[in-house]
Amino acid sequence: MKLDGFVWKLVNVYGPAHDDRKSEFIEEIQTLVQSSDLPILLGGDFNLVRKIEEKSSGNVDLYMMDAFNEMINVTELREIQRTGSRFTWSNKQTPPIKCVLDRVLVSNSWEDKYNLTSVLTAPRLGFDHNPLIVDTGVIVPTQQCYFRFSSHWLNQDGFREWVINKWPIRYKFDILDHWHILSGKLRRAIKGWGQNLDSYQRRAKQDLMSIIDLLDEWSDSRDLSLAEWEERYTLDMSLQHILTDEEIQWQRRGGEKWLLQGDSNSNYFHKCANGRKRKMQVTMLEIDGQEEIDPNCLKDHITDYYKQLFGRAEVAQMHLDPDLWPVNQ
Known about the structure:
- This protein is an alpha+beta fold and 329 residues long.
- It is 47% helix and 12% strand.
- It has three domains: 9-135, Deoxyribonuclease I, Chain A, CATH 3.60.10; 151-272, no CATH class; 282-310, no CATH class.
């Protein structure tokens, strides 16, 4: 991590759904862990269970379950215990089959470094899997927040009309003086409006997630009715609108990173520049019907081509005869 310089390996896991490939998958994970010299964290969808209780129907493959547990014991991995929903996957039927397919495994050296790590099972929204949120317990310093216009405000009902009503009248005759006053008033007004919108969306998101969590908790202990499952899926769709606005905000922040670091002498700039260089690099040209790959020959050919294209124009050797017109004309 950047804060402490600790180097470790992150493995994003997506296990095969077909049973005939799971043994090979378990062997691949074991080889990967045993060959790693760095502390390692593996997280994702393993498509395997560790206990019969991890599947609501109780119908599990005992052989693959034992093989998975044996691999974890041999590699000395430890599973970070989760909080939140009991299951991490659902087939989204009515009623559904649920099981624990997603988990986080860490090596001993990784756990020694981040011994306060916790894993939260977030609500399942729009997908059949619950996201797993890993918190290492490290406090990250926050940065000062400045006003930035967010394009997702334009999607909010009544925003354009609200801006028109808040548009200040002409205070100064000079247009520059008027613009200074106008921009300051609008910035303060829109900043407050945006903070209120963000606060409302956070509360609405929290309320929706609380109800979804409650329904998921009920589904862990009893079978939900058809009406309760319909309510669960309707709340899921409502939450997607809020998440769409958040996605637009993150896209803007990604653009800000290029604006702030794109032209600076930083690793981010050099990576972008090297990527463009690799994309635009000429490795082969056809010259006089022959493929040429030698870098020196390519350089000479390209240089001569553009010298002829943009070089000095030839002077036309055309002149008029001095005696073409009579002297009296």
